[in-house]
Amino acid sequence: MENAKKQSKFRAFLDRKGITLSPKVYFVDAMSAMALGLFASLLMGTIFGTIADLIPEGNVVREYFDLLSGAGGAVGAMIGVAIAYSLKAPPLVMFSAGVVGMFGNALGTTVIFEGVEKSVSAGPLGAFVCVLVAVEVGKIVSKTTKVDILVTPATTLGVGGLVGMLLCPACAYLMYWLGYFVNYATEIQPFFMGIIISVVVGIVLTLPISSAALCAMIGITGLAGGAATVGCCAQMVGFAAISFRENRWGGVVAQGLGTSMLQMGNIVKNPKIWIPPTLAAAITGPLSTCLFKLECTGVSAGMGTCGLVGPIGIITDMKDENLVAALLGILILCIVLPAALSLLFSEIMRKLGWIKDGDLSLDL
User: Fold this and answer.
1) Residue spans of the chain under pLDDT 70
2) What SS3 class is residue 90?
3) What pLDDT, on the 0 to 100 scale, is given for residue 58?
4) In angstroms, rounded to a whole number, what is the distance separating the alpha carbons of residues 221 and 215?
5) How many helices (H) and strands (E) does the chain have?
6) Sign of CA pseudo-dihedral 321, 55, 45, 281
7) pTM of this structure
8) Which of 158, 163, 260, 329 could cross-link to 292 by cystine, CB 3.0-4.6 Å?
9) Nearest to residue 243, comparing CAs of 257, 228, 256, 229?
């Protein structure tokens, strides 16, 4: 009885402080917000930088886009603010979280590979971990003293710094070798890794988890990044195509340029509707790694056709190597084949009765 009272008081305290101990809050909501922070800084900086490279030097327009490309330097701070916002942090905690995200993103360790020392940072994962802990502790102390303006930011920054020093070296080490493994394995086994990466990252895109944040965390690049991109495109374009009879052009825009996550409610009701775009991803992935050799880096690889960020990322990475192959690969692997293959598989499944009219309907 006494235990129950203590638990009840503890829950009431957490509720009062706006703290929800939930995996969904921390690993779905916070990670989705983190992707928005990445989008507003690193991704937009990359896009503006790509535009700047296409403009001759000594031009005021070039200088303008060069200036905007500096947005990428604010990635850690933007992750911090975005996560704090998703956790409904008070203003002082939120602003402090920007600083925590900045040094969480920068802290790291040194790895030795083939006799060469290399400094690596914890990146988005380091920012994510530091900010999560710092924000929740900051919320606990927020508005509990008469000198809140000093106590709250000092606590938030102090806790974030401590977590960063303790965990960021391990995060940096883990992400470096995980990214190295994925990228290297794709180089030596492009066919099988093309299938695995395309399918897995595409599935993550449709789940209420951020595929963009995942790709940024592991530092995916090269052929692996290309496979991730076409896998995401297969889900978005595939669902847009197979649900056209139910959702018409509104569904094409919402899913093809927005997110296939809109179909999660329908997937829960009938998981079989997920098969066509996933099979399409399994086919386009190895075509990307073995035939078209598409390349993409980081957050862009996990965006698919959302705002055409994935295709733009491929163009950014390949513009100096083979732009024609990049454009052809984008047209075939990111748009035409995902739509055609998904439609083919879905029509077969409709004839088998596995997918019925209305199964893919969205309330748009």
Assistant:
1) 1-7, 364
2) coil
3) 83
4) 9
5) 18, 2
6) negative
7) 0.80
8) 329
9) 256
